[in-house]
Structures are given as C-alpha cells and as structure tokens.
Amino acid sequence: MSELLRKHIEAITPLTDSEFEYILSHFTKRRFKKHQYLVQQGDPVINDYFVLSGLLKATFTNSDDGKEHILQFAWEDWWITDYQAYFNQTKASLTIDCIEEVEVLCLSLHNRDKICSNLHKIEHFFRRKSNAGYVALQKRILSLLSSSAKERYEQLFASYPTLFQRVPKSLIASYLGVSRETLSRLSK
Predict the structure, then answer these.
(1) pLDDT tens-digit map of 71-112
(2) Is the residue at 30 inside a domain?
C-alpha cells in the first residue's frame, strides 16, 4: 500500500529508494472502521492523513442549528485533516469520519517539518499540493456562490462519477448544499 504514497509523491518529484524509505519512516499506518472518527470537533489535531483505502468526509456542524455541512470527501490517493487546527496546533473545528472502512498513513506536523527540512524536494511536493488545494477550495467556494444547484451537481458528477456509487445521496446533497429532494430532482 505504501506504493500508492510513492506514486503520489513521484507524480510531482522523483525519489530514490532511500529517500522514500526515509519519508515513509515518518508515517504511521492506521485502520479505522466505518463511522469511526479520525478527528472530532473540539479535539487537538495531531495528524494529516493520506488515504490508502476507503472513503472519509470532513464536516462542520453549526452550533446554532446543529446542521452538518460537508466540506470535503477524501478517498484513495487523497489527503485530509482539519488544516487550520493541524498547522496552528489548535482544536479542531471540523469532524472527519469514515464512510467506509479506511486505511491511512498518518503524518504528524513534527514529522512533516522534519522531512521537509531534510528533503527539500518534499517541501516542494507539499507546496505544490497546498497550491492545488487552494485552487480547488477557491473553485468550490466560487461554485457555491455563483452556480446553480444543477450546475454544482453536474460539475461534481463530471469530476467524480464514482463518488455517486460510494456515497449515500443524503451526503451528496449535504456537500452540494441542497436538500435530498432537490438532489433527487437534479439526478433525473
């Protein structure tokens, strides 16, 4: 399974075997069951997670009305954590839980900083990943602000068609910011 991480990194920067072994030595592998939490709102955030298998969701629950908002899905070959809490070493404002059984590689901020300072190509890798994440986040925000529900549905389906086979419709509706009934109309 660690080959997935190597392939993921090498899509941006090549690695020698010894460099990859060094990088991998800073990760820990963990398994989580369906509905288990990796991060809970209000708790410290220790790790960033690289998904080897399974599917997760990152949510924010509004304290005023208790409504859950899905910010992100993550599956194989994706990273997920509460980045605000991870980088600032504060308590989580998000909850991350497993939609399916999950296997992840965990990377603490200390270990991330250590491998970045010792291997500049990894610092380059994480910078490129962060930049791509900023672009994706901006696209998502602009889509929520300027696209119709139908356009958001079509964009999501065009980008991630297999997501619709793995995720209950209620979660897709929450991610798109629409009701389950509206999603049913859009999917016809």
Answers:
(1) 999 999 999 999 999 999 999 999 999 999 999 999 999 999
(2) yes
Is the overall model pTM greater than 0.85, yes or no? yes
Residue 184 lies in a domain: no
Output the domain CATH number for residue 58.
Answer: 2.60.120.10
**Total structural domains within the chain:** 1
Please provide the DSSP assignment of the chain as one string. -HHHHHHHHHTTS---HHHHHHHHTT-EEEEE-TT-EEE-TTSB--EEEEEEESEEEEEEE-TTT--EEEEEEEETT-EES-HHHHHHT-B-SSEEEESS-EEEEEEEHHHHHHHHHH-HHHHHHHHHHHHHHHHHHHHHHHHHHHS-HHHHHHHHHHH-TTHHHHS-HHHHHHHHT--HHHHHHHT-
